[in-house]
Amino acid sequence: MIVTVTANPSIDRTIALAATLTRGAVLRASGSRREPGGKGINVARAVAAAGDDVCALFPAAADDPLVTELIADGLPHACVPVPTEVRTNLTVTEGDGTTTKINLPGTAWTDTTRAQFTELIVSRASGADWVALCGSLPPGVPEDWYVQLIVGLRGLGCRIAVDTSDAPLCALAASFDTAAPHLLKPNGHELAQLVNAPSAVDADDLETRAAAGDLTPALDAAATLHERSGAAVLATLGAAGALLVTDEGAWFGTPPPIEPRSTVGAGDSSLAGYLLADTHGLPPEQRLALAISYGAAAAALPGTQPPQPTMVNPSEVTITTLTSGAA
Predict the structure, then answer these.
(1) Cα atoms in the 13 Å half-sphere on the side-chain side of 230
(2) Using omega within 30 degrees of 0 as the cis cutoff, is the peptide bond preceding 198 cis?
(3) Could you tell me which residue ranges the Carbohydrate kinase PfkB domain spans (predicted)?
């Protein structure tokens, strides 16, 4: 069982442009999509599509449009109520795959909401293989809530993955001595935040240099993060590929060529692929290959659709061993 936690869920509206997005111009869309969103929900949808056991946890009223869509999709889930509708986020994609995203802040939590949601997570975590804590935190939630949650989940037998950014990520980095997860899934920018918290460096250089064949900056950062946290580090580096650093070594993988449609949710699909591979007992190299294959398949789809298993082919991913033994 994989349990995903989405503190700040959304309905994702994607508008596709055939031309370049131009500020201040009148543009015509070539299409649009509306889908359930939020990082943990994206992970859960990909896991469910693969046929594995999953449960998505998030705050929403029972009659919220998001809940209605997930019921129609047949996604197992559980919620705690909030008084207003889940936010709607807007994504604009261009013909070359460039993606612009506008996210609303989300529904503010009360202390009661936070207590109820925490209780729900703890109750569902017991007996789970993985609990994935994903995404931003809505207004009214302390920046260190993930830290508190990780401490509360210890002793339940589950492993914990975290994929977040900005203030919650920096709070986590400051608490690795008491609240380190088992897996961290940063992208290039988040990797920089974690290694340099609280100030982040521009991630473009990490990804650009990796794409040009220079893995040293990204590998050094991921290895440093692994050393500080003790967690496995799955660092996604955009079109360049991804790094995995564990106690067993470090690997880099490059995806097969694709025509990008939307990068939104690609990292979430990568996390889903890794968790799926791990729950099936695959070794690190194959976990990385499946993660990259899932991410590439998602980027080739419009909107935030989860890849179907038939779209995923890890044998097309090139894996390079960078180090063996402790990284």
Answers:
(1) 10
(2) yes
(3) 7-310
- Sequence-distant (≥ 6) Cβ neighbours of residue 25 within 8 angstroms: none
3-state secondary structure the chain: CEEEEECCCEEEEEEEECCCCCCCCCCCEEEEEEEEECHHHHHHHHHHHCCCCEEEEEECCCCCHHHHHHHHHCCCEEEECCCCCCEEEEEEECCCCCEEEECCCCCCCCHHHHHHHHHHHHHHHCCCCEEEEECCCCCCCCCCHHHHHHHHHCCCCCEEEEECCHHHHHHHHCCHHHHCCCEECCEHHHHHHHHHCCCCCCCHHHHHHHHCCCCHHHHHHHHHHHHHHCCEEEEECHHHCEEEEECCEEEEEECCCCCCCCCCCHHHHHHHHHHHHHHCCCCHHHHHHHHHHHHHHHHCCCCCCCCCHHHCCHHHCEEEEEEECCC
The torsion of the CA quartet 136, 142, 143, 148, rounded to 10 degrees, works out to -100
Contact 130, 278 (CB under 8 A): yes
Alpha-carbon distance of 143 to 114, in angstroms, equals 13
Half-sphere exposure (Cβ direction) of 282: Cα atoms closer than 13 Å: 17
Number of other CB atoms surrounding residue 220 within 10 Å: 12
Domain ranges for the chain, please list them: 2-20+31-324
- Give 40-97 pLDDT, tens digit per residue: 999 999 999 999 999 999 999 999 999 999 999 999 999 999 999 999 999 898 887 7
Tell me the C-alpha distance between 17 and 28, whole Å: 7
Q: Which CATH architecture has domain 2-20+31-324?
A: 3-Layer(aba) Sandwich (3.40)
Structural contact between residues 86 and 9, judged by C-beta atoms closer than 8 angstroms: yes
Q: How confident is the model at residue 203 (pLDDT cuts 50, 70, 90)?
A: low
> Which positions are catalytic?
268
Is the pLDDT at 200 greater than 50? The verdict is no
